[in-house]
Amino acid sequence: MSITAKPGMNRKDVLLLTAGPSVRKSARAVRKAVFPVAGLGTRFLPATKAVAKEMLPIVDKPLIQYAVEEAAAAGIEEIIFITHRSKRAIEDHLHRAVELESELASQGKHASLKMLRQLTPGGIHFSFVRQEEPRGLGHAIYCARHLVGNEPFAVLLPDDLIDGEPPVLAQMVSQYEQVQSSLIAVRQVAREQTRRYGIVDAFDADAESDTLKIREVVEKPSPDAAPSTMAIVGRYVLSPAIFDCISNLKPGTGGEIQLTDGISRLLKLESVLAYRYQGKHYDCGSKAGFLEATIAYGLQHPEVAMEFRETLLRVGQELIQEFQQEPESAATAADEPVLKTAQA
């Protein structure tokens, strides 16, 4: 099974939503970003049975909102969502909610009204393309080819929440303007975790540079087969040549069209660089990572930070007490067979 390009898209295939003036060709090196959001979020069932996983909130803001704000901070002018028929909530979130705005205005809740109107950054154009079935990240990105055209573009996975200053995509766009090469965000992981990530093998990996020339990429290798522990994180700036590299790929790991396989082809045509970003990464595609992000962002939230900190301190003290009692309980349990034997 390989990918075949559709000759055209009808109105049902692509939905357009403009949050501000029409987008015109600008001098920006990277104007467009692709958001692959068609995944079904099965790791978060039953929560994601009727709710898009990208709409799950970190404190009081859904993951998709963090991603849109990061793209806006990077100067992105057009976001292309590769979505699924079950993900209408994402589109609804980005539309104005006129009835809700009217209700807030009538109740004098001006702060909430202002916040609601700022959810969609001005001047950004949104497009929605449906991926009818999940066929991998490579296929999802290929679905955006007709909208991206022949220009470099960013890819942002909302599951990968990164707290960076400046935001990571802005770091990468700035770096791209200097090097004019495709960039892949990377971070170090424990070797036993390599089977969860695409892994990069780079030249001069011990160098202190923010960018490293990539030798090869491998999708989810076992720890003993991984060429390094440098893992790909869900931020990319890619050359449009990637589309030709993906166009006739056969399914790879997991039976899906893998972006890493397309990047392996791209490496034969041009340089691709690993980018060591500045920021803290949270894997919100996992439950543990999602909870870690909630704690971290909760402690930064201006409305609840103080109260939440007190709650965490109380819970922490309770955990310490439980931990201190565990050795005593274990020792008591270990002594019981001896006492029973003596009594016998």
Structure commentary:
The chain has 344 residues and is α/β, with parallel strands linked by helices. The chain has a single domain, classed as Spore Coat Polysaccharide Biosynthesis Protein SpsA, Chain A, CATH 3.90.550.10. 35% of the residues lie in helices and 22% in strands. The protein has eleven helices and 14 strands. The chain has helices at residues 63-73, 88-94, 98-106, 110-117, 137-142, 145-148, 168-179, 242-246, 259-266, 287-298, 305-343; strands at 14-19, 32-36, 57-58, 61-62, 78-83, 124-130, 153-156, 160-163, 182-188, 198-202, 211-219, 230-238, 272-276, 280-283. Strand 3 and strand 4 form a beta hairpin. The protein is globular, with a radius of gyration of 23 Å. Mean pLDDT is 86; it is low at 1-16 and 18-24.
